[in-house]
Amino acid sequence: MASNEWKVTSRASSVITATWVFQGLWMDCAGNALGYIQACRGLMIAAICLGFFGSICALVGMKCTKIGGSEQTKSRIACLAGLIFILCGLCAMTSCSLYANRITVEFFDPLYVAQKYELGAALFIGWAGSSLCIIGGSIFCFSLVKDNKNRRVGYAYNTAASAISTRTKAYNDSTDFKAPNASPKHFDKNAYV
């Protein structure tokens, strides 16, 4: 009884402009989706899907995970994740820019007599998010270049002698008297744990 979809017009009448009308017992509703709105929707859905797959690739390509194979394979997967993130950011930025262009064109057109709108906060958030996706994707892409140029060189870890262990060694070396079953008072790195 409360639904407005008792009678619905066909939505497949035109590819460029989709117009529909809902008629119910209490209310009639009409809506349309112009071509640029459908393009923006498609680009945003593509950006969401690319962001999801980019996140999965980035998770596999990180060096701290155990899946993904060798270091070289992981760096290639991370570079692929970077490319996917860059595509995600470009799709989202294109969508926001296309929508904002239409708003500004209608706002500054003196012959446009319908309701005029200004840029909303969601567009600015979309631009910021897409910029972060592009920057993050670029960083992931540089992980491949950095990994090929500089191979990690292992260094031996030499522990620093503490003041207590140095004094104890000097004291044990300088004394002439040693108990027959006394263990040496040498403190190593595990003595403090």
Automatic annotation (TrEMBL):
Q: Which InterPro entries match?
A: Claudin, Claudin10, PMP22/EMP/MP20/Claudin
Q: Which keywords does the record carry? A: Cell junction, Cell membrane, Membrane, Tight junction, Transmembrane, Transmembrane helix
Subcellular location per the Swiss-Prot or TrEMBL entry: Cell junction, Tight junction; Cell membrane
Principal localization reads other
Q: Which residues cross the membrane?
A: 43-65, 77-100, 120-145
Q: Specify the protein's topology with respect to the membrane.
A: Multi-pass membrane protein
Q: Write out the similarity annotation.
A: Belongs to the claudin family.
Name this polypeptide is given? Claudin-10 isoform X4
Annotated organism of origin:
Gekko japonicus
